[in-house]
Amino acid sequence: SAVISQKPSRDICQRGTSLTIQCQVDSQVTMMFWYRQQPGQSLTLIATANQGSEATYESGFVIDKFPISRPNLTFSTLTVSNMSPEDSSIYLCSVEVREQGEKLFFGSGTQLSVL
Amino acid sequence: ILNVEQSPQSLHVQEGDSTNFTCSFPSSNFYALHWYRWETAKSPEALFVMTLNGDEKKKGRISATLNTKEGYSYLYIKGSQPEDSATYLCARLSGNTGKLIFGQGTTLQVKP
Questions:
Q1: Which residues in chain B (42-71) have CB-CB distances under 8 A to chain A?
Q2: What is the three-class DSSP state of B43?
Q3: Cα–Cα distance between A10 and A7 in angstroms, integer?
Q4: A window 37-66, beta carbon within 8 A of B
């Protein structure tokens, strides 16, 4: 299994500011995934963070809005830039463990509210 | 079906009741179906990963079945307990893209 520490757990931010979310994994993993769940919506993949290369973004998500860092195999950050109320969501990081049937293990989430 | 769809959206049952909910998904290019339980203020937790048509998996009072030909999976909870209260998510892993597509979840509330 994998244990992921994610912080902050929640934040209330002003429009136009940025927030950086951190995830620390207790083991080395090749890929880390960043998800978002907007109110009433499905959990949606934002991007895949690869160590040593640029993150791969899903359709509808861009690097300028959601810059990602992946400095080593146990850590990643996601920044939500120039926030608007539409960015109010739960943000989750996760990793895949192939030895356990490609299950995802998740951080505990960041509840973001933008005023 | 183009997306992963879960029903019902929410469910309220009494302690001791058995319940079930549905996940429907596109059957083409299927690779695997995941079920997760997400309790409030906690991390989503993997329940099952299912790959074969006709698969049945069980974990305590919770079990799941899979029909890949018609594109659905059922999750059953026998004798629901208040600690089963959570949102249950299913996700389809595409053989084409290798990505998980999640449904919107079924939120279960078990009243003591």
A1: 42-46, 49
A2: coil
A3: 8
A4: 40-45
Cis ω before B82 (30° cut-off from 0): no
A6-A11-A17-A20 Cα dihedral, nearest 10 degrees: -10
A112 burial level (CB within 10 Å; 0-12, 13-18, 19+)? buried
- pLDDT score for A78: 97
Amino acid B50: pLDDT: 94
- Report pLDDT digits (tens) over B43-101: 999 999 999 999 999 999 999 999 999 999 999 999 999 999 999 999 998 777 778 89
Per-residue model confidence (pLDDT) at position B45? 94
How many Å apart are CA A19 and CA A6, to the nearest integer?
13
Q: What is the predicted pLDDT for the residue at B2?
A: 61
- At residue B111, φ and ψ (nearest 5 deg) are -90, 135
Q: What are phi and psi of A100, to 5 degrees?
A: -115, 40
Whether residue B43 and residue A103 make contact (CB cut-off 8 A), yes or no, is no
Query: Rounded distance, CA B65 to CA B52, Å?
Result: 10
Element holding A49 (H helix, E strand): strand A44-50
Per the document, the length of chain A is 115
Find the CB nearest B49 among A43, A102, A106: A102
Residue whose token pair is 């959601």: A66
- For residue A63, give both structure tokens: 């690097």
